[in-house]
Amino acid sequence: MQSQQITSNKLFKQAKQTVMKELVIDLEAEKKEILKRYRALLRACKPAMQKGDKRSIRRAFDMSMESHQDMRRKSGEPYIYHPIAVAQIAAQEIGLGTTSIVCALLHDVVEDTDITLEDIEREFGKKIAKIIDGLTKISGVFDYNSSLQAENFRKMLLTLADDVRVILIKLADRLHNMRTMDFMPRDKQLKISSETIYLYAPLAHRLGLYTIKSELEDLSMKYMEPETYKFIAKQLNEKKAERERFIRDFINPINEILREQGLDAEIYGRPKSIHSIWNKMRKKNIPFDEVYDLFAIRIILNSKLENEKSDCWKAYSIVTDFYHPNPDRLRDWISSPKANGYESLHTTVMGPRGQWVEVQIRTKRMNEIAEKGFAAHWKYKESSAENGLDQWINKVREMLSNPASNALDFLDDFKMNLFSDEIFIFTPKGALIQLPINATALDFAFEIHTDIGTSCIGAKVNHKLVPLAHKLQSGDQVEIITSSKQTPKEDWLNIVVTAKAKSRIKSALKEEKRKIAEDGKEILERKLKSLKITYNTENLYKLSYFFKLASTQDLFYNVAKGLIDVKQLKEFLIAGKTVENKPEKLEHVHPDNFVKKVKDKDVDTLLIGEDLQKIDYKLSSCCNPIPGDDVFGFVTIGDGIKIHRTGCPNAAKLMSSYGYRIVKAKWNSQKKLAFLTGLHIIGIDDVGLVNNITKIISNDFKVNIRSITIDSDHGIFDGSIMVFVNDTAHLENLIVKLKEVMGVTSVTRFDSKTNDPA
Fold first, then answer.
1. How do strand 356-363 and strand 295-301 relate by DSSP bridges?
2. Which helix (H) or strand (E) holds 717?
3. Is 479 exposed, middle or buried (0-12, 13-18, 19+ CB in 10 A)?
4. Is the pLDDT of residue 604 over 50?
5. Is the pLDDT of residue 345 over 90?
6. For 600, what's the count of Cα atoms within 13 Å in the CB-facing half-sphere?
């Protein structure tokens, strides 16, 4: 297995060298290609260009060309192709202007070359230098207790608060990297894809860049779930002709009536993204053949601004006169646009062949905002009134202004508010407040003002008294009840869903804890004096370590709360001679230091690390990997290396937030060991069904059952079985056999309900 790996690496290097040689030989062709791409960029910029813009772009191109001249990408191509492509995406697909194009051409020069921010500022001015700074990663010594990725992301968002173009250029950069990732090693592909699906795709969604968001999701899936991706892509391709015929039959009659009614409209069918189809298959636990809404019909109206709303409803009336709508599936984002500026009418109708079809109705202006998001939003912005996007950027500013939160906490809170759908809540005076779905009365209180949130004791929803944890529904009218005696509680963190509420509660709790710790410090000093223990930093560290506390502040807090008494301090005094100093911080620890070779464990089936060695590991209980699964290793702080599936629910978060703690892992030649995995079985309840299932598992496959949970409701059987299998092939055969049992309709593998990311 290892020799195969070495051979493939050699072949890869040889191929890469061959490519490099060919490219070096044909430098003239390369120069022509660069010029061709540069001209294509200028053509894309032309609509937004003003006097002097062309000269600025040329200066940026020359600087980028010169500084990157000796650099090449993993594919062997000249590096300059990348900044040109990023600038092209920024201009063409996002609709950004000259400043952004200049920044896109220069986005890597500070990070990868000798050019400094001062050089950029001297040449192009303060504004461009500030944006480039936002796009440049943090360098220097870094604390491994935190996360470099999270810190870089926070730094970028700090600039977002002043200039949204930082994020838009970063998204263009990420999109081009994802499009050209084939030459990257597998572990790099996984890390970058995880980061993309976890952070950048939700961010694109939040900024209204739906086309880019869909492509980022699809490209991430291409590397994280390659088999599933290929399967869905193949299925979509095979059914293309049939789909196009259906769309034609659906569109033709509507087109005629729209023309008769004097509405100028463009109608087309748009296939859904591979990722959204996959999501539907997972959520509903159905095969590809049962996903009916594989595409959406889009009606784009050419309407005057004042007629937009009435024309969209006219078109809606025509569609629903012809096809029966599903009354529960009407979404009106024209009367109440989404927080990212998205406006559209969505309905689901029964098509000509007994199939549900989603229809989206919007105008050209609305469509441009949906496609190009933020940039288009500014283009059409007429009034000085704040809209949803402005409000969101202000919320980001608020979150960033909270100095207490560390980067990872901030990232989790920030991400929480990215993808969630909005609900609309009214204040007692009738003002409209947008909140994420599942928001509670307490979230609403913090949204109004921090002081109202911290002193909130209850709420009236539609004039009815409700507790703080009450989940709000769109259209609710909410009145907050406060008390000056109220203070935030720890369990409030489990009640709220908005980032603002979470960060304010954490800040209030930290402040409260700090005050208590101050009192505890004085108490401890007195107690140590009475026990004749010197009060100094060294002893405080030793005490913290003795009581297994993370910091001296926790020590002071526990003393103040009476959780550490004099008796326990005497124990410390007795054990004092043997207590070592607290270990060094994790910042000095590198994943390689965790790598511990196994002497003679023949039972090990995993090879770990760059050199693919046999190393001690644990299988993670959140996804129960088995031989044959695509896996990676994660270096935990106190529990060695844990193995996760790349499709694990926690994988994206781990790889995007702790990329530096990810190690390669690969299954060795198969040894007959048993691995725990879960099966979810659904079917029609019948006499002897359970017996037939367990018979196949125990007798035919000789598989041990660890646990079985069965629920039967009105004739429907729903069971979860934990079984021990040898590998993925063994599991797949078992699933096939179980599906053949009379009455069984579905058998799927499931991940553990426990959250075990580390």
1. parallel
2. strand 716-725
3. middle
4. no
5. yes
6. 0
The catalytically annotated residue of 22, 26, 112, 565 is 112
> Where do the H-state alpha helices sit in 359-478?
364-372, 374-380, 388-400, 407-416, 441-448, 450-454
For Cα atoms 193, 412, 96, give the angle at the middle one, nearest 5 degrees.
Answer: 60
The answer to whether residue 6 scores a pLDDT higher than 50 is no
Nearest to 357 by CA among 313, 324, 317, 316: 324
What gap in Å lies between CA 462 and CA 24, rounded to an integer? 73
Read off φ and ψ for residue 110, nearest 5 degrees.
-70, -40
* In the chain, % of residues over pLDDT 90: 9
Find the mean pLDDT for residues 370-377. Answer: 68
The answer to whether 111 is a known catalytic residue is yes
Query: Annotated catalytic residue: which of 22, 26, 62, 111?
Result: 111
Supply the DSSP string of 180-194, one letter for each residue. T-TTS-HHHHHHHHH
SS3 (DSSP) at 118: helix
Calculate mean pLDDT across residues 729-739: 82
| Token pair of 88 as six digits | 């092209």
Cβ atoms of 80 and 65 within 8 Å: the answer is yes
What mean pLDDT do residues 234-259 have? 87
Half-sphere exposure (Cβ direction) of 64: Cα atoms closer than 13 Å: 28
Determine contact, residues 673/216, Cβ cutoff 8 Å. no
Q: Are 45 and 99 in contact (CB under 8 A)?
A: no
In the chain the domains, ranked by start, together with CATH numbers, are: 29-183 (1.10.3210.10), 232-380 (3.30.460.10), 388-506 (3.10.20.30), 589-667 (no CATH), 675-750 (3.30.70.260)
Alpha carbon distance 509, 198 (integer Å) = 28
The span from the CA of 97 to the CA of 163, in Å, is 13
Tokens of 339: 């927080």
**CA nearest 542: which of 582, 490, 505, 508?**
582
Residue 555: Cβ within 10 Å count: 24
Query: Is the separation of the CB atoms in 129 and 121 below 8 Å?
Result: yes
Contact 672, 636 (CB under 8 A): no
Q: How many CA atoms lie within 13 A of 486 on its CB side?
A: 17
- Beta pairing class for 641-645 and 631-635: antiparallel
Q: Over 666-687, what HEC string results?
A: EECCCCCCCEEEEEEEEEECCC
Q: Is the separation of the CB atoms in 615 and 595 below 8 Å?
A: yes
Task: Calculate Rg over the CA atoms of the chain.
Answer: 30
Mean pLDDT (whole number) for 322-346: 85
Q: Which two tokens stand for residue 445?
A: 């209180």
**pLDDT for residue 473 is more than 70:** yes
Q: What is the pLDDT of residue 378?
A: 59
Query: Which of 95, 237, 61 lies closest to 165 in space, CA to CA?
Result: 95
User: Phi/psi zone of residue 142: left (φ > 0), alpha (ψ -120 to 50 degrees), beta?
Assistant: beta
Torsion sign, CA atoms 500, 501, 506, 512:
positive
DSSP 642-675: EEEETT-TTHHHHHHH-GGGEEEEEE-S-----E
Q: Which of 33-42, 403-412, 470-479 has the lowest mean pLDDT?
A: 403-412
Question: Do residues 82 and 109 make contact, with C-beta atoms less than 8 angstroms apart?
Answer: no
Contact 334, 309 (CB under 8 A): yes
pLDDT recorded at residue 85: 92
Please say if 112 is a catalytic residue. Answer: yes
**Locus of tokens 């060991």:** 673
Q: pTM here?
A: 0.69
Tokens of 537: 């930093």
Under 8 Å between Cβ of 84 and 63: no
The runs of H, that is alpha helices, within 667-757 are 689-695, 728-739
**Which DSSP string do the residues of 485-520 spell out, in sequence order?**
T----GGGGGT--SHHHHHHHHHHHHHHHHHHHHHH
- Side-chain half-sphere of 636: how many Cα atoms within 13 Å? 15
SS3 at position 337:
coil
